[in-house]
Design a protein that fits this description.
Largest sheet: 2 strands, antiparallel
Shape: globular
InterPro entries: Est1/Ebs1-like, TPR-like_helical_dom_sf
GO molecular function: telomerase RNA binding; telomeric DNA binding
Strand order of the largest sheet: 1-2
Low-confidence stretches: 94-116, 225-229, 231-236, 325-338
Strand content: under 5%
Number of strands: 2
Distance between the termini: 36 Å
Helix content: 40-55%
Number of domains: 1
Radius of gyration: 21 Å
Order of helices and strands: HHHHHHHHHHHHHEE
Mean pLDDT: 79
């Protein structure tokens, strides 16, 4: 991709132009002298682009998030350090808890076989710095799809200590905790969903429509009843979010979605990416659920105070944040490498 704009490239808004150029350089390995200027220019422009786009950034948000994940994974390059670390069998939640007891061993560090390649810091910077900018837009519902897909990936990494060791020291955990607390604060609103409250209280697993139907039928068969003594109603058919369809097929979501989640014969292809108002609360639930699940990993990164309903961070990531300006050369809540 030429650093000099041609007529076809200039049809893109500047933020998208520099984003595409950055990924083109990362993917091709060519014209690397233009990588840092292109990336920095994208990071300078993206916040204003989100502000001007409003709801129109819902779809670009999750596409940008997924693209940055692909860059972090080396676009399928098997020599990528995270890809190598992920090339093992993921333990189940129970096995993880049995094998990794609190304070039983120090945080994992990358082994020599998965040492970071020379070019790896650049996509990691793009991944973290983009997230840092977007995450600071507290209360902006148009950023939820981006936050959702990013935390889906981070949650997946929690099952692979060697892979997480490449990301965790640089990820803005403190900023993530503040973002999650902002979402929780909406729980005082009368419009907050009951599901969000349940996630905060118990951290119960994310249920798809099939699981909820089976649970309600079981309650009815056992003589249970819902509110007012009435039988438990059939669970409404939940439709996947637009970003669910965009994420479908990636290895890091294989354990995320419940069985039958994409059985959506009644949804036309044209409607799969159609936004409806109820998706706002659904996304809040997903993001908070992911935060709770990450915090359950012995509090290595995020922590959750159930009594006060507040997220915090491990002491290693308890840092001062400058919430007015950001130096993209060194993220304010990144922990320096040892």
């Amino acid at each position: 991709m030429s650093p000099t704009s041609n007529p076809q490239q200039t049809r893109l808004p500047p933020a998208e132009l520099y984003f595409v150029r950055t990924h083109g350089i990362l993917f091709s390995g060519k014209q690397e002298e233009h990588l840092e200027p292109s990336m920095d220019r994208f990071l300078e422009l993206i916040d204003n682009r989100i502000s001007r786009s409003t709801r129109r950034w819902l779809e670009p948000g999750y596409h940008i998030g997924i693209s940055n994940i692909c860059a972090l994974l080396g676009y399928g390059d098997e020599s990528n350090p995270i890809a190598q670390a992920l090339n093992v069998t993921r333990p189940s939640d129970t096995e993880s808890q049995d094998q990794l007891m609190p304070d039983s061993e120090p945080p994992a560090t990358p082994s020599p076989s998965v040492s970071a390649s020379k070019q790896f810091p650049s996509p990691r910077k793009l991944f973290n710095a983009t997230y840092d900018v977007v995450c600071r837009r507290f209360g902006d519902r148009n950023t939820l799809p981006f936050l959702h897909v990013t935390l889906v990936f981070i949650h997946h990494l929690t099952f692979f200590p060697e892979a997480m060791a490449h990301v965790a020291p640089h990820f803005p955990w403190k900023l993530t905790a503040l973002m999650l607390n902002t979402l929780i604060s909406s729980a005082s609103s009368p419009n907050v969903s009951q599901a969000l409250a349940r996630f905060l209280e118990s951290g119960e697993p994310f249920q798809g429509w099939k699981e909820k139907q089976e649970e309600n039928k079981k309650n009815n068969n056992e003589g249970g009843a819902g509110a007012g003594g009435e039988p438990w109603p059939d669970a409404p058919r939940k439709r996947p979010l637009p970003e669910d369809f965009a994420l479908r097929g990636f290895p890091f979501v294989e354990e995320y979605y419940p069985d039958g989640w994409f059985v959506t014969e009644e949804i036309d292809d044209d409607d799969k990416y159609f936004e409806v108002l109820s998706m706002i609360e659904e996304r809040k639930e997903r993001v908070v659920w992911l935060g709770r699940r990450i915090a359950e990993k012995e509090g290595k990164w995020l922590r959750f105070d159930k009594e006060n309903r507040r997220f915090g961070v491990h002491p290693d990531y308890e840092v001062e944040l400058d919430l007015e300006s950001v130096d993209y050369g060194e993220l304010p809540d990144a922990v320096p490498e040892a």
